[in-house]
Amino acid sequence: MTTSRPSPLRLITLYLLGIGLMLAGPALRAQPAWPARSISFIVPYSAGGSLDATARLVAQRLAERLGQQVVIENVTGAGGGLGFAKAMQAPADGYTFLIAGDSPLNPNAPAGGPYYKHDVLKELVPVVLVNTAPMVLVAHPALPANTLGELIALARKQPGRLSYATSGIGTLPHLATEMIKQQARVHMVHIPYRGGSQIANDVAGNQVDLAMLIAASAAPFVQAKTLKPIAVTGERRLALLPEVPAAAETAGFKDFKVVSWAGLYAPAKTPAAVVARLAQEVDEVLKTEAVRDKLAQQGALAGGGTPAAFISFIEQDRARIGRVLQVTSLRE
Fold first, then answer.
1. 219 vs 90, 235, 316, CA distance in Å?
2. Looking at residue 184, what DSSP letter applies?
3. Which of 88, 150, 173, 250 has the most CB atoms within 10 Å of its CB?
4. E strand map for the chain
């Protein structure tokens, strides 16, 4: 019995194919570990603001953990819309992310407010909650009310007489004050401003009775006693203003919570493993005492958790805002 032998040409071909597979095999199997290069965090506002400061704080600590540079890219314009759009259009390769606040990311927000009709739950991938920042309801020192309970009693005695300022119709400070009005069933007149810079001075000057301010903005005036703090809108007191009670401490306001917040997002279709890894790393960064202390100095609380927990947080926040919008036109 004879056995046919492969031709010399076929032997050479098989040999070369084997060599090629040996060389290519490891390359095909070995995907570079993430991250293999620097990462970009898009901040949709200019440098120097509170969100930018938070992003840089997290980026610095995250870079130390990952062994790769985390670059902050400030993309300004359209009130944050350009940064949002750039994140949506970025490659879903795990190297570009968006760190943004709550304001532009609520599709249920009223027309005329600083919100975009985008849905981060559909157009981006929520990664992790970075921080929350309660607001402070403040008053002119001469106002005859020192607590939220006393303020509500005063508003009931003088319906429509008290005025309150916010940074504009549909902004979170406006929505927070509307929630207090609805829950207490009182009427106060809204004085919308184009921004928050002048509000504290006007309340201190007794041109407006009350204002809802971000804690970091209110703190210098409270500490100087030119503004009187009434309540914090978070579920607990702030280290920045430890003497100011949370609204939830007042009868009838159990579980009251309205906070500004910031989170980290990835472009749609970013690999789930990358999203999970980044969430875990940022969560560890936010657990460090140095980061928590720095955020506390800014009147904020560290976030953290998993992508699923962040999604749940967004859904709950939207539900609270949605209830306000159902019963008010937000035009006063």
1. 38, 18, 28
2. H
3. 173
4. 39-43, 70-74, 96-101, 124-139, 163-166, 189-192, 210-214, 228-232, 259-267, 301-304
User: What single-letter DSSP state applies at residue 132?
Assistant: E
Domains along the sequence of the chain with CATH? 39-132+259-327 (3.40.190.150), 134-249 (3.40.190.10)
CA dist 243 and 218 (Å) reads 14
pLDDT at 192: 92
As a residue count, the chain comes to 332
Residue 257: closest CA among 301, 320, 187? 320
pTM of the model: 0.80
Q: In whole angstroms, what is the distance from residue 213 CA to residue 211 CA? A: 6
Give SS3 for 148: helix
- pLDDT tens digits along 112-160: 444 445 677 888 999 999 999 999 999 999 999 999 999 999 999 999 9
For residue 35, cis peptide bond before it (omega within 30 degrees of 0): yes
If one counts every other C-beta atom within 10 angstroms of the C-beta of residue 189, the result is 13
Residue 62's identity, in one-letter code, is: L
